[in-house]
Write a structure and sequence with these properties.
822 residues; 9-stranded mixed sheet; flat; alpha+beta
C-alpha cells in the first residue's frame, strides 16, 4: 500500500528518573491529503496519554511543493511512564487511517535509554585561534537540581586551568524541557587549548560525576558567509535592511555574527507561536471559575466592509464566549449599519447604535461605552483585528488575581502586502516609557469599576483620546498585568496613522497635552516637548528641580590626570547646573602630576574636595567611602573617563531623581565615536546582566525607539548614575563583596527591591571613554575574577535570573543577545 504519510524523527530522548522514564520525541509528519492529523504514543502496544506540542516547520513545508503542507507539521511528544518499556511506537493518524512513524523494540530502547544521573548537552564550542583559548557552552542537570562544579581535563586526566560562568537557560524552560526552578543550569567555560590537545568536560554533582569528550570543531567565518548566501531570500534581505536602518552598521554586524537565522522574518516567528485550531477547540472546553463579561467598544466611521468583517469575525471566533461587542456608528451613510444588521443581526452579543451624526472619535467611543454592560472594558479600533485566543488569554490571567488592567503585545498588519510586521514586544508596566509615548495602545482591557470612576473619552484629546484615558486609569491603580503574547493586530493602510505618521499631526499635539494634564493631576511640575521626525508621537519630559538642591559628584580616581581633567572641566565649563560639589576619591595614585592637579583643583574650586582611600582597590568600598563626605541629598556617581555632552544633563537627571517614586537614574553614555555604550541594563544576559542598544549609532532608535526615550529598567550603570542619598543609605550602599563587577547592578536591584524605580534618562548625554574592546574575557585572570563575582551575584539574585527581567519581554531569546526573537 502506498504510504500517504511523510515523516521524520529528528530527536529522541529517553531518560530514567525516579518517577519513571522521561520520553521526549521530536519530529514532523503530514498526510498528503488530510490536514488534520494526530500523533499518538503507544507503550508496550497500548496507547498512553502524552503531551503533544506543535512546532512550526517552514523547512518541511518548503521541501514538498507538490502538497499543501501546513507549517505546523512539527511536533514534540512528551510523556512519563512507570512501565517497563518493552516497545515504543509513535503513530500518525487521520480519519480511518493510521501509520507507524517510529517503532522501537526492547534492544533499541536499552540503547537509547540514558541511565546516567547527570544529564548534559554541549551546545556550542568555539576557539579563538590568535589567543589559543576555547569557549564551551552548554547545560547540565539532575533530578536533585544539584549545584554542579565544572572542570576541563586533558587526555591524561590532568585538570586544565579554566574559568566557569553559570548561565540561565530560559530557552529550555520555554521548550518545557525543564521547569523554571532549573533555569540556572547553563555553563560557559573558557580554557586554553593546544593544537593537538584532547579535552574532556568533567561535571561534578552532589552525589555523582560525569566526564564527557569535547569535540573540537572550529567555526569558520567563511562558512558563516556561505550560510548567508544559501539562506538569502527577499524577506530575509528586507528584514536585514530594517535591522540595519534601526540599529546602525555596528549593531547590524553584531547581529550578523549570529548567523542567517537571526534575520528570520517576523511572520515566520509569529506563525510558529500562533495558536492552532486544535488548541482553540481545547480552550473552548475550559471552564473557568471566574468568567467576567468583556465589553469591546468600537467606533466605526465609513469603515471598509472587508475591514469591518475581519474586525467582527475575529471577535465572533474567540475561544472565550462571555463577551459583547458594542459598536457606535457615526458614518456619513447607512452602509456600515446595514452591513452589520444583515450579517450579524442575529447575535445578541453584537450591539449596534447608529448615531445621528459623527461626534468625533471620543464622542463615538463614548456612545459605544454607554452600551457596555461588562465587568471589563476592551478598547478596539474599527479596522484592526484580534487573535482568536485574545479574550481567553486575558480571562486566564484574571483567574489567580483580579488585575484592574491587562495589556498584551501587538503587531501591525501591512494591508498592501498581506503580512504581519513591526512587532511591539512590550515590557511590564513602565511609567517612564508610557510618558515618553503610548507604547501600550492595544490590546488594553480595564476593570469597568475604574471606568465608572474616571468617565469616558475626552473630546479635547481627540487623536490621543486613548492615551489620556489610559493615564487616568493608571492614576487609579497599580494592579496592572502585561500579557506577553501577540494578540492584537493594528492594520496599516494608506489612511492609518500606522502607515503615515504625518497624516495626523494633531494626534501628537493632543498626546502632549494628555501628558501635561496627567502631570497636573498628580502634582508634578514638568514641561513636555514633542520629538521631531522620525520620532512623531514620542516626547521628552523635563521635570522641575524645586529648590535646586546640592548634587554631590563622587569620582574615584587613580592617576590618568588628563582623563580626570577632561571629566572635571566638563562639569565646570559645559554643565549648566551649578549647585554641585565634587568629591574625588584618590585611590593609590603614583604619579606626582596627579597630586599637583589635585592641589590646583582645590585651590581654584572651593566646591572640590579630595579624599584619600588607602586600602586595596574595591569599587564598592571606594564609592561608599566617598559618599561619607557628601553634603548633598543627591549623589552622582561618575567615572573619571566620562565627559558631559549635553549641558543640562545633571539637571535632567536631578529632575527625574527628585520624583518620590524614583531611587536611581542613569544616563545615555556614548563611546568617543558617538555610538552608544549604555542605554539601560537588562538582567539575565550570560547569567548576569548586559547593556542593551550597546554599539548602535547615537541617533539610531534601537528597538521600538527605546534608546531615544526615557524608560524604566532594572538597572543602569554606575559610570554615570544619580541616587537619592536617603535611598542609598537605606540599602547600605554598594555591596563590598562586589569589588570590581556587578556592584552597580546589585545596587539597582536593592533599590528596586524597596519599590523605587530605576530610570534611564535618554536626554542626559555623556561620553564614556571606556575601551570598546575591553571585556571580561581579556585574560584568564580577568575572566576568573569576573566569573567569581557573577557567581556571588547569581546566589544573591537567583529569583530575578530565574523569573526574567520584568522590563524585558520574555519572547526575546536572552541567550542570543538583545531583542532577538528567533
Amino acid at each position: 500500500m502506498k504510504k500517504e504519510f511523510h515523516s521524520s524523527i529528528d530527536g529522541l530522548r529517553l531518560r530514567k528518573q525516579k518517577e519513571g522514564t522521561l520520553i521526549q520525541i521530536n519530529g514532523w509528519c503530514f498526510h498528503e491529503k488530510e490536514a488534520d492529523r494526530s500523533i499518538r504514543l503507544y507503550i508496550n502496544g497500548q496507547e498512553v496519554p502524552c503531551e503533544i506540542l506543535p512546532i512550526t516547520r517552514y523547512d518541511v513545508a518548503g521541501s514538498f511543493p507538490k502538497f499543501q503542507v501546513d507549517p505546523h507539521v512539527g511536533f514534540m511528544v512528551k510523556a512519563n511512564s512507570n512501565a517497563y518499556l518493552e516497545s515504543l511506537e509513535i503513530k500518525a493518524a487521520v480519519e480511518g487511517r493510521e501509520e507507524t512513524i517510529l517503532k522501537l523494540n526492547g534492544r533499541d530502547i536499552s540503547r537509547f535509554l540514558d541511565k546516567e544521573v547527570i544529564e548534559y548537552s554541549i551546545d556550542d564550542y568555539s576557539e579563538m585561534k590568535d589567543e589559543n583559548m576555547a569557549v564551551l557552552v552548554g547545560w547540565a542537570l539532575d533530578e536533585a537540581n544539584s549545584q554542579f562544579s565544572y572542570s576541563i581535563v586533558d587526555e591524561k586526566n590532568v585538570e586544565v586551568p579554566s574559568t566557569v560562568r553559570i548561565e540561565t537557560r530560559r530557552d529550555l524552560v520555554q521548550l518545557k524541557m525543564i521547569d523554571s526552578s532549573q533555569s540556572m543550569c547553563g555553563f560557559r567555560i573558557n580554557f586554553p587549548v593546544t593544537k593537538d590537545g584532547v579535552y574532556q568536560l568533567k561535571i561534578v554533582g552532589d552525589t555523582s560525576t560525569r566526564t564527557v569528550p569535547i569535540k573540537r570543531e572550529l567555526k569558520k567565518r567563511d562558512n558563516l558567509w556561505i550560510s548567508y548566501l544559501k539562506a538569502a531570500n527577499p524577506q530575509r534581505i528586507y528584514k536585514a535592511y530594517e535591522y540595519l536602518k534601526n540599529n546602525g552598521v555596528r549593531g547590524f554586524m553584531k547581529r550578523l555574527s549570529l548567523g542567517p537565522g537571526s534575520f528570520s522574518p517576523y511572520p515566520v516567528w509569529f506563525e510558529r507561536q500562533r495558536i492552532t485550531a486544535q488548541q482553540l477547540e481545547e480552550q473552548k472546553r475550559v471552564e473557568f471559575s471566574y468568567t467576567p463579561k468583556i465589553s469591546l467598544i468600537v467606533a466605526t466611521y465609513n469603515t471598509k466592509e472587508s475591514y469591518l468583517k475581519e474586525m467582527i469575525d475575529s471577535v465572533l471566533n474567540q475561544s472565550y464566549s462571555n463577551w459583547e461587542l458594542c459598536i457606535a456608528d457615526g458614518s456619513s451613510n447607512e452602509k456600515v449599519a446595514k452591513y452589520i444588521a444583515s450579517h450579524y443581526g442575529n447575535d445578541k452579543r453584537i450591539k449596534l447604535k447608529r448615531l445621528d451624526k459623527n461626534y468625533g472619535i471620543s464622542g463615538n467611543m463614548n456612545a459605544a461605552l454607554e452600551m457596555a454592560t461588562g465587568d471589563y472594558l476592551g478598547l478596539y479600533d474599527h479596522d484592526d483585528f484580534l487573535e482568536y485566543n485574545a479574550l481567553y488569554e486575558v480571562v486566564n490571567v484574571l483567574q489567580n488575581q483580579k488585575y484592574d488592567v491587562v495589556y498584551t503585545d501587538e503587531d501591525k498588519y501591512d494591508d498592501s502586502k498581506g503580512v504581519f510586521a513591526d512587532p511591539n514586544f512590550k515590557p511590564d508596566f513602565n511609567i517612564d516609557l508610557f510618558r515618553s509615548h503610548n507604547y501600550i495602545t492595544h490590546f488594553f482591557v480595564v476593570n469597568m469599576d475604574i471606568v465608572k470612576r474616571i468617565g469616558g473619552m475626552k473630546k479635547e484629546y481627540d487623536g490621543a483620546q486613548d492615551y489620556d484615558f489610559m493615564f487616568r486609569v493608571f492614576e487609579q491603580t497599580n494592579k496592572i498585568y502585561h500579557l506577553p503574547k501577540m494578540l492584537y493586530h493594528w492594520r496599516m493602510h494608506s489612511l492609518s496613522t500606522a502607515m503615515n505618521p504625518e497624516s495626523k499631526m494633531y494626534c501628537y499635539e493632543a498626546g502632549k497635552n494628555a501628558i501635561l494634564d496627567h502631570y497636573k493631576r498628580i502634582g508634578l511640575s514638568a514641561t513636555v516637548k514633542l520629538l521631531p521626525k522620525p520620532y512623531y508621537g514620542c516626547y521628552e519630559t523635563t521635570y522641575a528641580t524645586p529648590g535646586n538642591p546640592l548634587v554631590s559628584v563622587v569620582i574615584p580616581n587613580m592617576d590618568h590626570r588628563d582623563v580626570l581633567k577632561t571629566c572635571v572641566d566638563s562639569l565646570f565649563e559645559i554643565n549648566t547646573y551649578k549647585n554641585i560639589e565634587i568629591i574625588i576619591v584618590e585611590n593609590n595614585s603614583k604619579e606626582s602630576e596627579t597630586f599637583t592637579y589635585y592641589q590646583e583643583l582645590e585651590r581654584v574650586h572651593p566646591n572640590v574636595k579630595i579624599v584619600y582611600w588607602k586600602d586595596d582597590f574595591n569599587y564598592s568600598q571606594i564609592n561608599n567611602f566617598g559618599v561619607q563626605y557628601a553634603k548633598g541629598d543627591y549623589i552622582l556617581f561618575l567615572n573619571n573617563d566620562t565627559e558631559m555632552i549635553r549641558p543640562d544633563s545633571i539637571q535632567n537627571m536631578l529632575g527625574v531623581c527628585m520624583r518620590n517614586e524614583v531611587g536611581a537614574v542613569g544616563a545615555k553614555l556614548l563611546y568617543d565615536d558617538r555610538t552608544i555604550q549604555h542605554a539601560g541594563v537588562v538582567i539575565g544576559f550570560s547569567g548576569y546582566a548586559g547593556h542593551i542598544n550597546n554599539g548602535i549609532d547615537e541617533d539610531q532608535p534601537g528597538y521600538m525607539m527605546r534608546a531615544q526615550l526615557n524608560c524604566d529598567y532594572s538597572a543602569v550603570t554606575a559610570a554615570c548614575m544619580m541616587v537619592k542619598k536617603s535611598v542609598f543609605e537605606k540599602v547600605d550602599g554598594f555591596d563590598p563583596q562586589f569589588k570590581v563587577a556587578c556592584n552597580d547592578v546589585d545596587l539597582c536591584l536593592k533599590i528596586r527591591e524597596l519599590g523605587y524605580l530605576v530610570v534611564y534618562d535618554a536626554f542626559s548625554i555623556w561620553f564614556h571613554y571606556e575601551s570598546k574592546s575591553r571585556g571580561y574575557e581579556d585574560s584568564e585572570e580577568k575572566i576568573e575574577r569576573f566569573n567569581n563575582e557573577v557567581a556571588k551575584f547569581q546566589k544573591k539574585w537567583g529569583k530575578i535570573l530565574t523569573d526574567g527581567d520584568p522590563y524585558y519581554n520574555p519572547n526575546f531569546k536572552i541567550e542570543l543577545g538583545p531583542f532577538i526573537y528567533l
